[in-house]
Amino acid sequence: MKTNKQLHCTLLIFLFGMTGLSAQNKLEVDYVNPLIGTPSAGFIDGRDGGGTMPCVGTPFAMTNFVAQTRENKISEMPYVYEDNTIQGFMATHQPTVWMGDYGYVSVMPQVGKLKLLPKDRALPFTHKDEISKPNYYSVSMGDKSQKIKGEIAAASRCGIFQFTFPKSDESHIVIQGINITENKKSFHGYINIDENKREITGYNPERMSSHLGPELKNFKGYFVIQFDKSFERFGTWNSFRTEPDIKEMGREQTGARMGGYISFKTEKNEKVKVKIATSFISLEQARENLSKEIPDWDFNKVVENTRDIWQENLSRIKVNGATEDQKSIFYTALFHTMLFPREFSEYGRYYSPFDDKVHKGVSYNDYSLWDTFRALHPLLHFTHPERVSPMIQSLLQMYQEGGWLPKWPNPTYTNIMTGTHADAVIADAYVKGFRDYDLDLAYEAVRKNAMHPPYRDTEKPWGDRDEGTLYEARGGLTYYHSLGYVAADKTRESVTRTIEFGIDDYSIAQMAKDMGKMEDYERLMGWSKNYKNLYNKETGFLNARLFNGDWDKNVQEGFTEGGRWTYLFGAMHDIQGSIELFGGRDKYAAKLNENFDGQHYRHDNEPGHHYAYLFNYAGQPWKTQELIRKHTSTINYRNHPLGINGNDDCGQMSAWYVFGVMGFYPVTPGTDIFAIGAPQFPEFTLSLRKNGEPKSFKIKANNLSEENMYIQSLKLDGKILDEPFITYTQIMNGDVLEFEMGKSPNPNAFKNN
User: Fold this and answer.
1) Of 50, 42, 103, 115, nearest to 79 (Cα)?
2) 660-674: per-residue pLDDT in tens?
3) Which residues form the Glycosyl hydrolase family domain (predicted)?
4) Which residue in 11, 224, 468, 700 is a FRET match for 658, CA 20 to 30 A apart?
């Protein structure tokens, strides 16, 4: 494993050798550094890395194409920066480090004696021989005499690899269709070799998270692999916990750890191209996907087409006045916000892992909702409004096909995390005017989450990743309704559940009110205050309570991924109520200061992502401005592989950064209010769409510098804003948000503060 110092040195070599472009010639896409966040280690010993990978493909691609440094599984990505060998070039669907891959396949070039297993076929590489961009990846592997260069280009469902071989009488490409399963279930894949068509077809039915969800008899990750070179020899292999059993000239193979290979002679620097088409519907659909996305063998055309698509998407926010490093951090963060949820439909049809059938329509999947309801989905309202309603429609399809909205589909129900934050995502979009889906069905789906506990709710303690416990609803909801809190001796993670159920109830209530469902509105708003029943005046914290009403003696009991400080200010939907609970704004601000000054704030996880903005509500917005400067800096974000302080969680960590440097943040879902932070670059231009028509919105920070971090005044289209808040409507109707910055806090910057 490399040290942090070695990681720094390696990246400098990478950056200076990567493009040769001058700053004047760079476009937004040229600033993206997909290696940011790829180490397994984090900023601080014992903490997680970013959980990202240097994938190639179009925005929100169905399949990610990536160099594989290890066999991935739940808790390990396919590419880890500290590794020094390449095992394959992979078509993967693993969204993040703590979720599983499914329906994947890999290929690996080699010369000399045929080696089939990943660790045997692995070739050494160094990062100085690597180039990583959103639209292109390359690496040189092997020893000096037998170097092989691997290159990747890709669209959404299909990729093309280009391998440059040395002169050899024994060159090979190894195909692996399935790993040894990690999840206690036996999966058997299939592979077929057709030497006349120069093609390998097959499917991989493995889902690494399958032990957490329902059986899916029809799930398969289909693949069609085509080569532009004839085979001289070929075969299949099977190696389930044994040495490979090779069938020379074998055309078909099934098994739990198996694949195939092709062999041929190569001349010096001969290029061999490999196209991979993927589908969750059928082999025929995979071929159709290939015909639409990569119809010919022009590798460079795919590189340029995907580059153009990324440039159009990334240039929807233009930054002026930032340093080269800052631009790389910003546009890499923006890149990370454009990966998930992933496209799951295939040109008008989609396979549903919720009813195991194929349907007509558009679909997305891999929603990291516990994380992304906070900032990622609100950011998409600005950057990708055309995708917002289809993403919600996809969630509603999951509800129709499976019975509940999902909490973390991967690609089906997984029983992961605590709240039902599809509620917040749907309600937030509804409030902001995104309504191109069945509104009655949307309300029915979120209302079910709020009103109906899971089957046998009071008989089970519930828990994250419980096996054989298919529920997806709010475990402990019965107690939340009857007692006014989730009881700690009846249900795990009780404090977190109580808070998060309230966030979702508040969000749903806003839909109910707008739709004229006032009885529901009153009930939901009442329940949303249940977190107050866990406020312990003696400790000054939200503490777990037992079924009989007593406080749990363990003050750290009842929390998800954190402790009592992590969730003390967690009621993001009722900040005024929290202020009153704490005894007023001064005491609330004092407790906030204690949280930050005592190093209790953890930016590397999501529950506290709104905390820095809470000083706005307590009458001390300059504290927010200080904290945004601190936490958008190199303390959490760097232009370096060790560049994200904590798991990026499918774009949430990156979305927080994008909002942070722009100067506003969506604290409360289900409202159109954003809390003002402080811009970190002199100028942003957002390309937005209002009623389907393009418009721009400019953010200007006058007199911004290292010293001048504090807001002196704020104007929207020349009119002074009296409060440290701005609404979605104001942004969509406005043209210029103008900050005047200075070196000292200005308590009078907002008159109504």
Assistant:
1) 50
2) 999 999 999 999 999
3) 285-743
4) 11
DSSP-derived secondary structure for 405-430: --SS-SSS----SSS-THHHHHHHHH
* % of residues, the chain, pLDDT over 70: 95
Residue 333, helix vs strand vs coil: helix
Q: What is the mean pLDDT of the chain?
A: 94
Taking Cα atoms as reference points, which of 111, 160, 407 lies closest to residue 269? 111
The Cα 591–Cα 742 span in angstroms is: 27
DSSP SS3 for 450: helix
Burial class (CB within 10 angstroms; exposed 0-12, middle 13-18, buried 19+) of 435: middle
Model pTM above 0.90: yes
**Phi/psi of residue 644, nearest 5 degrees:** -130, 120
In tens, the pLDDT along 178-213 reads 876 554 567 889 999 999 999 999 999 999 999 899
494 token code pair: 């009780």
Compute the distance between CA of residue 126 and CA of residue 86 in angstroms, rounded to an integer. Answer: 10
Q: How confident is the model at residue 43 (pLDDT cuts 50, 70, 90)?
A: confident
Q: Tell me what pLDDT residue 680 has.
A: 98
- 618 burial (CB, 10 Å; 0-12 / 13-18 / 19+) is buried
> What percent of the chain clears pLDDT 90, i.e. is strictly above it?
88
For residue 250, the Cα-to-chain-centroid distance in whole angstroms is 40
Rounded to the nearest 5 percent, the helix, strand and coil shares of the chain are: 30, 25, 45
Assess whether the previous peptide bond of 453 is cis (omega < 30° from 0).
Answer: no
